[in-house]
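Thymidylate kinase
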Amino acid sequence: MPDERTTPRGRFITLEGGEGVGKSTNLALVVDHLRACGHEVVATREPGGTPRAEAMRRLLLDPDGEEPLDQDAELLLVFAARAQHLARVIRPALARGAWVVCDRFTDATYAYQGGGRGIEAARIAELEAFVQQGLTPDLTLLLDMPMAAAQRRLEGRLKGQGGERDRFERERGTFFEAVRQAYLARAEAAPERMVVIDAGAGLAAVQAELLARLDERLEAWS
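Predicted structure tokens:
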């Protein structure tokens, strides 16, 4: 076990955004950049990140379940997976001084279950307080682009990979616009933590902006 008196806590960085904004590609970029800077990095995702949490992810994303998933059950599943993820991956990594880079975290819950499903933010906040016990990301990189353009990207990716839409990807455009606006509202309310990146630009421009903003924060932390 690491000695918490001598081992500095690692940093917790999250990437957020709706479907089709390029989180997976850019998460790999962030991970590689941090490792090049000499940090131990744990790359993970939500929902998921552990075998049991990944099983909950499959329940959440399955478009062909035997019964509709109630929105309260969906919210509780999200936080159940998060509790497991925190206990088994995120907290132990941070405690030993590793940096954690996560594809989505609680901002996604406020965006998808709050903005998209219409669940009150206060109810989400109660679960956040219970499960996370004050743990929040040190930095969140929000990849943002207009909903219609993101949907075109998603469709192109699915055709290229031969995949089909999951349960969330099958939602209507109004759902995704509500998700986007919820994300932007959270970024406006927490500018010290959340950095908005224009994901609608070309890949090279997006990654240059992302690394520039990441390096600004690294310098501030040094």
